[in-house]
Amino acid sequence: MTTSRTSASRSRAPSERRARSLLRAAILLLCAGTGPALAQEAIRPGIVQSPILTVEIDRLYADSDFGKQVSELLDATGTEIAAENRRIEAELTAEEKSLTEKRRTMDPVAFRKLADAFDIKVQELRDAQDSKARTLGNLSEERRRQFISKAEPILAELMRDAGADIILDQRTVFLSTNSIDITDMAIARMNEMLPDPEPLPDLSGAVTGPADSAPSKP
Fold first, then answer.
1. Can you name the residues that pair with 168 across neighbouring β-strands?
2. Signal as a keyword (predicted)?
3. Reported pTM
4. In the chain, what is the greatest distance between 2 CA atoms, to the nearest angstrom?
C-alpha cells in the first residue's frame, strides 16, 4: 500500500511541477502585458500620484513671479511714502521755527490765527500720510487675494493630474513626506500661466493744508 501511494506521488510530482511552472509563466506574461499599461494610465510624468497633496501657501505667493512683482511694487511705493514723510517733516519743522520767530513781533491775536492754521495743516498732512499707509496695506492684502483667486484653477488642475481629492496647507499638516508637496510645481506652473500684476495706484503727492499767510487786517 505504501509502495502504491509513493509511486502515485512520484507520478504526480512532475505534472504538478509543470503545472506550477506554467502558472508562474502565465502570471509573468500577464504582468508583462498589463503592468506597463496600468502604470502609464495611473502615473503621469512629473506629477506625484496621491489622494492628498500639500502646498505652502505663503511660499507659493512669495516665490512666484506674481508675488515678487507685487512685493517690488509695494516696496517702491512704501519707499516713496517714507521719503515724502521725511520731506513733509522737514518742511513743517522749518515752518514751525519760522512761526516761533514771528511770535516775538506779531500781535498775539494774529499769531494765534497763524498757529491754529499751522496746527490744522499738520493734522491734515498727518491724516493724509496715515491714509496712504493704510491704503498700501489694503493693496497688499488685495493683491494677495487676487493671487489666491488666480491660483485656485491651477491648483485644481494639479490636483486632478495627481488624482488627488484634497490639497492641504502645509501649516496645518503635522507630518508628511516631501513627495506629496506640490509647492515648487505649482510655482513653476503659475509663472507660466499668470499675467503680471496690475500697477498700484499713484499714492504720491501730499495734501496741502491752510497756507501760512499773513493775518488779515481788521
1. 54
2. yes
3. 0.67
4. 145
